[in-house]
Amino acid sequence: MSQHIEQVRHVCSLGALQSVLAIERAVPVLHAGPGCGQKLWGALGFQNGCQGSGYIGGHSVPCTNIGEKEVIFGGDERLRDIVENALQVLDADLFVILTGCTSDIVGDDVGQVAQSFQKQGKPVVFVETGGFKGTNLFGHELVLDAIIDQYLQPAEAVEPGLVNIWSVVPFHDPFWVGNLKEIQSLVAELGLTPNSIFGPGNGLDALAQVPKAQFNLLISPWVGLKNVKHLEAKFGTPYLHYPVLPIGPTETNKFLRSLGQYAGVDAEKVEQIIKKHEVDYYYYIERSADVLLETRLLPRRFITIADSFYSLGIAKFLINDLGLLPETQYITDGVGEDYQGDIEAEFKNFADGITANVVFNNDGGAVHEDIRAIKFRGRPLLIGSAWEKVLAEEINGYQLSVSMPVSDRLVLNRAYVGYGGALRLVEDIYSVVLDDFQ
Amino acid sequence: MAINLQSSEAPTRENRLGSITGYKGTIRDLVEQGSCGSLKNKERCFSQASACSSSCAQFYLSAILDAAIVIHGPVGCAADTVGANTNRKWGESIRGWKHTNVNIITTDMVEEDTVFGAIEKLKNAVREAYRRFSPKAIFVTTSCVSGIIGEDVKSALDELQEEIPVPLAPVFCEGFRSKVWASGFDAALHAIMTAVVKPPLEKTNKVNIINFTGSARKEITETLARFGLEPVFIVPFSTIEQLSKISESAATLSICGTLGSYLGNALQQQYGVPYIQTLQPHGTAGMDSWLRGLGLATGKEAEVEVYIIEEKERVAIELAEVREKLKGYTAVVGMGPSFGHNYIRTLQELGVEVIWGATWHFDPVHDNGMSPEATRLLSKGEADIPVSIADQQNFEVINLLNRLKPDLYIGRHPGTTVWATKMGIPSIMIADEFSAYGYQGLVDFGYRLVDIVTNRNLAKNLALHVKLPYTKWWLEQDSFKFLQEEVV
């Protein structure tokens, strides 16, 4: 039973059209109303780190633009026409049909339409992502499952050292490209061969590699768990689930050690890699320590109002590495009840026995009401989305947008994951503090 | 056909005005067919994501400072509230106001709601919107889902009206109902007319200016002060109180013929507020006609003529200079119909040759029963300009641009200008409705064009390094291959 939502921080399942666009030369084909594409791209892309159409997104996405006629008489024929013509007009290698609310309620047989193309050997798959089914994070998992079921072929042999990376949700996390590249870079340092289907330069070649992997690496509190289990069931590929997005040395060290141990990498080698990164990271922290410590300015307490990746990952960094203290943390990406327990446990597990309360709530308005009631000593740091800017003014806090919607920043290849990512985060937080009064 | 304010909803543009989203031909043919009622719509058997009424309705209402919106649908239909919030902050910023977030709640309809209905959920959301925002009015927008499952939003609000002491108005804007996204503006304006606007208690010297974000507020206020008039900028960044009194104004002007038609004509019909339906105030001829229309309606003809002469003298030299620099350039325009036809004229005034006009829909008549002034004027011009109509449809526009290879592309509406730029064509997106406003604005706009043809490096470099998402096959086809000949 859902409740009303004020201040959207996610969109509906059809928003997973952006996950398709994140696969190079794949294109979503929407069987939906005329407005869905623009609205969802607007929220997940244009108004979220300034992520635009790119190669084939935005208003290039083919859509049946369902009208009254299709609602009354059904839209199968129109979908067939659109897919048929899309195959001729658009230069793409994989066409993923996604349905919107209308077709899922009216009962169009999209599977049949997709199969009629599949039988002709065309690269067409379908997935029913009617908006009322869930969030775009839920939709992201549905899209991956559909691709696994309808497109991926079993591998002839497993390639040792090949690791598929499953982590942040493309577009929803505006830093997804940088983050995925950083994860791949870390994995490669261990001597493994990382493979990601999302992001520039990957695309269908990477997709073809997926069934050949030695194991799947899921770095996520919950999104994607269904998919790696599915890959295990279908191709027998085992998976390592690392439930925290590693930001900063404490967590990234832990991540590298876990991964190294799982993959059988020589422990000494892992420690050397860690040491090298720590030397680099601490050079900068040592150099900025005077300012961080000896001015009156660094906030002592923080609140995250973010998706589960950032809420947990950033909390770990701010507490374990930067020495800040947590107020209540708010997670807004619609975490299912099954997953909440494990995430809450992570929030009870910080250095020196520090714990944080976490509230799962998609309703930003209710979250803001909660926060207004907190008595703060000193100015708090709000790590959230652009919705929080007005609240920060009210409660005299500092605010940085990292979680959708990040409508107030341009994001290109910035990453927050890892050692370098943590330094970016410190720069961004402290620049907010300095900008506030100068 | 008179506007019917007794009905709970505004008819879509197709039904009310005979508006179309599929056509290819010339401006004279378009006007001829439009005026003798033989203009039929054509469909396309290939299409790309367009836009829906719901986004126009919600976007427009979201910036009423003290109103709230409840979006009755799944969470995706509220995805546009992120952009609406950014827009609200822009408008607050240029006015030097404190920032606020939009007052919007969505009922977040989920699967079980589609089976069992969600009227109770809607009522709770409306109560919650009242509690959180203390609004002076609450608008409830509908969605494809609420429409298909037959949610009786009107009755729910009638029942709630007993509990909640501010106007509760339904806004019927289901995405599937209209191919013309501008129908959403009409839905919002119908709600405002029927639930907010009150009969006049007095007549004032105010002039309603129907617009979007109001960047030219200062200039317009100064200009109208010359005629003893005071502008009220509606609907965004106004209050419910201000909107309730628009029936008292001396006249209504609109920055956009498409946007203003429903409200302007309704105010005239219902309350006798003259609606000035001339050209838009872009370009000299446009500004002349706008001001003269205002002068005529308010008895200020003499003052207006003095002002016009002064202003034109002031910019005469600069205008001649910039026209000289733009001589010989060709352009294609891609915008909504009223902006499109007005900008074609404006570009012609700057000496630019417009070789094609693509508009995102076309209203053969506005709500006064007459064909749009700007369109009629173009049809009487020297050139019978080739025109096409599509609910954007980039595949068609890009094919056209590839064929025509204009020097310039001037667009309006998100997701169009970037494509022309990637083809190496210097392009401008008219995001601000007051670009090229007035005599000085025309000169400034001219210089904006000069700038983009002077340094073409962004467009040039992009074109060298990116690939268009279209097959070689498509770029070789006739642009209108998928425009179906049969009438639907």
Instruction: Give the helix level of chain B as a range of percent.
Output: 40-55%
CATH uppermost class of the largest domain in chain A = Alpha Beta
Q: Structural class from helices and strands of chain A?
A: alpha/beta
Distance between the termini of chain B: 23 Å
Q: How would you describe what is shown here?
A:
The complex is a heterodimer of chains A (438) and B (488). Chain A is α/β, with parallel strands linked by helices. In chain A, 46% of the residues lie in helices and 13% in strands. The model of chain A has no long low-confidence stretch (mean pLDDT 97). Chain B is α/β, with parallel strands linked by helices and 488 residues long. Among the domains of chain B are: 53-195, Rossmann fold (3-Layer(aba) Sandwich); 316-487, 3-Layer(aba) Sandwich (Rossmann fold), CATH 3.40.50. Chains A and B meet through strand 1, helix 2, helix 3, helix 4 and helix 5 of A and helix 3, helix 4, strand 4, helix 5 and helix 6 of B. Strand 1 (5-6) of chain A pairs antiparallel with strand 4 (104-106) of chain B.
